[in-house]
């Protein structure tokens, strides 16, 4: 099986030339046609309705999930246990999603549709009825996550709110990663016991940096943060210092002690921390593919395919929403904002009319029109960036949305904080393969 996924499925990943073809598509039907000549084949053939980004993402994800299930069904020990460990990460995310939906009174069916099928377990729907952390833990003790409950030392007296849900999720992840790490070190033979711990060390470091960065204004104490950090990884020796950080500059100073993370806070590259993580992860996967007779091949294949689905989704989203997606389209909304932009009427005179028309028409511009708009608005990038920052507080959607008029992306992290990154590169240069990452 390992030989199968070394020799075939790595070649089944989209190539740079195929990505270039995808970025030259004019609409979603073109995208479907281009994907049909790849390993995705006719995965959209049963779609009777009009194509949308959500449908493409759903079908691409389902294809990946079916392939993973096939591997899991054919696996024997210790590969079977290794694959079970992988699914536990999805289970933790699913549990967090259901609990969060419950406290915000979301429809259970809608929530379950958003869960990852690879992380399904029988007691997952029952989490909606939990009234406090103790109820959550009692239900999770009847799931494959039971052994991580004991290791995480959670306080069952806490009430259910967004912050405590994140604390539960991160403590479970900590226990999960530590247990997974020990399994790869003690239960597997070389080269697995060498390669897989390195991959998990990266996962641990990613969690440490994300938790430290996202919790700056959360009110968590140093001790509480430290309890969320996995006790291994390249940043383990700096855990205490990171838990005491109160600003991004101090985090940067500490993280830079680890060579491979030195560029993560270098703003000159135009990349966010998340983008650097994606790039680092794909580089590790590329290296893992060079090994033979190791489970790391399957890990690398899964992570690469997940990134591939994200890339396809971003391209589809760009094609479907290539016009500006902003919460403000009129000068009134900007001028009435309590924190008025120093641009004043510059926004009204130079961008508002064109932007409002484009949002209303919501038509996909041709390549020539896109090029003309980019040239016309080149000098406005930084100015529009300022105004957009003022208005993003009302955005509810998580993830990435392209804002074409100022070529920016915005994200909402787990603590509902918004970050914006201006883009100045063509989309064809922003796609992740096994050696580059979409920004």
TrEMBL record:
What molecular function terms (GO) are annotated for this protein? Answer: proton-transporting ATPase activity, rotational mechanism
Alphabetically ordered keywords of this record? Hydrogen ion transport, Ion transport, Transport
Query: Which superkingdom does the taxonomy of this entry point to?
Result: Eukaryota
Instruction: Please tell me whether the keyword Transport is annotated for this protein.
Output: yes
Q: Which organism is it from?
A: Wickerhamomyces pijperi
Q: Which family is annotated?
A: Belongs to the V-ATPase V0D/AC39 subunit family.
Q: Protein name, please?
A: Uncharacterized protein
Kindly list the GO CC terms recorded for this protein.
Answer: proton-transporting V-type ATPase, V0 domain
Q: Which Gene3D superfamilies match?
A: ATP synthase (C/AC39) subunit, domain 3, V-type ATP synthase subunit C domain
